Amino acid sequence: MKLSKEQEARAQSLHKRAIVIDVLGALRPTEEYILDMEAGGLTAVGLTLAADTHNFRETMNWIAWWNKELRKWSDRLMLATSADDIRQAKEDGRIAVIYLFQNGKPFEDEIGYVEIFRRLGITSSQLTYQARNYLGDGCGESSNAGLSQYGEEVVREMNRVGMLIDLSHAGEKTAQDILKLSSAPVYFSHACIRGVYDSARNVSDETLALLAKNRGIICPTGLHISPDVEPTVDQMLDHIEYASKKLGMDHVGFSTDFVKSEPRVYQDACLDDEGYLNLQYPGTLKKTRYHWGTLGRAQEYPWFIYPNGLKTYRDLPNITRGLVVKGFSDEEILKILGGNYLELLEEVVG
How far apart are CA 335 and CA 341, in angstroms? Predict the structure, then answer.
């Protein structure tokens, strides 16, 4: 993208001032990775502790492991369980880490686990990943059956204990059922817009209308943004622009959806002769197999094709530059970079 000297100076100043929150990203507890995050001006990152395969016990192990890592890097990283924690991280020059789940599987069939995880610092959870679970259908299910009765109970319990409900990966009816049921605002931590690019992972205008009534937010990401083999960060910003027009400027954020923070799993993954990606989870007999022939998926690690201009955390200032070029005001840019998510977190979680 081409910016004038004045635009570049404005973008740099805004990025430095902003509370920059990657609502769903990744973290590797290494010097190189943390340096990249710092160089990109990141204030906070949503960290996935459970996704498609994790049960209660496995998730508890991940919480214990990450708690240990955050203690080890406490001069540069800190756990955030509230909006004020993120503000404190900005003031301290540290990176706030927000624990979240990309699946409701850790809740198993015990409603009391929701409160246990909330007390352990989990501030957000999806109810489903791609497939159906106890709570409802993910977006990979052709039946699109919506929330189960147990899923409805979990929504009410998450509202009660103050845990954000994340609609990413939910089937369309599941997402709409949650939006009609939840007494608190909800959000899409990492999802793009079907009105810009038609993908099963993206959100329809009908669902966006319900999200507007709910006062929730959506955070477009770097995947599923266009039919192009090599998408660009500008195309990702098209989704932010579309969402801001549909929902209003107070209801949009961003995320990177960088590869989940289990590097061994993805680095050791392999493609088989049938075109499936095979993941082996360390310390378990669990294997996961995904068909890997769809657009936006690479044939080698890190397995996903991120947009040109947003390949690593060092590229985060390009989001701010692009928003400047698109004509957003300073106030609007600060909201998109993190202000809107911060307000949502404060309202629902504290």
Answer: 8
Q: Do 138 and 170 form a contact (C-beta atoms < 8 A)?
A: yes
- Would you state the pLDDT for residue 217? 98
Q: What is the b/e burial string over 218-232, where b = at least 16 CB atoms within 10 angstroms of the residue's CB?
A: bbbbbbbbbeeeebb
Per-residue pLDDT at 267 exceeds 80: no
* pTM over cut 0.90: yes
- Region 53-75: mean pLDDT is 95
What pLDDT, in 10s, does the model give residues 111-155? 999 999 999 999 999 999 988 999 999 988 889 999 999 999 999
Average pLDDT, the chain: 93
Query: 170 in helix, strand or coil?
Result: strand
Render 269-289 in DSSP notation, one character per residue.
-EE-TTSEEEEE-TTSS-EEE
Whether residue 302 has a cis bond before it, omega within 30° of 0: yes
Q: Check whether 186 has a pLDDT greater than 80.
A: yes
Q: What is the residue whose two structure tokens read 């540069």? A: 76
CA–CA separation, 25 and 166 (whole Å): 14
- Which contacts of 58-62 are long-range, i.e. CB under 8 A and separated by 24 or more positions? 58/106, 58/284, 59/101, 59/106, 59/117
Task: Quote the tokens at residue 21.
Answer: 């929150």
How many CA within 13 A on the CB side of residue 98?
A: 30
Q: How high is the pLDDT of residue 49?
A: 94
> Does residue 279 surpass a pLDDT of 80?
no
pLDDT over 80 at 293, yes or no: no
Maximum Cα interatomic distance, the chain, rounded to a whole number of Å: 57
Total Cβ atoms within 10 A of residue 331: 10
Set out the domains of the chain in order of their start, with CATH numbers.
5-258+307-348 (3.20.20.140), 261-305 (no CATH)
CA distance 36 to 28: 10
How many contiguous H segments (helices) and E segments (strands) does the chain have? 13, 11
How far apart are the C-alpha atoms of 33 and 95, rounded to whole Å?
A: 12
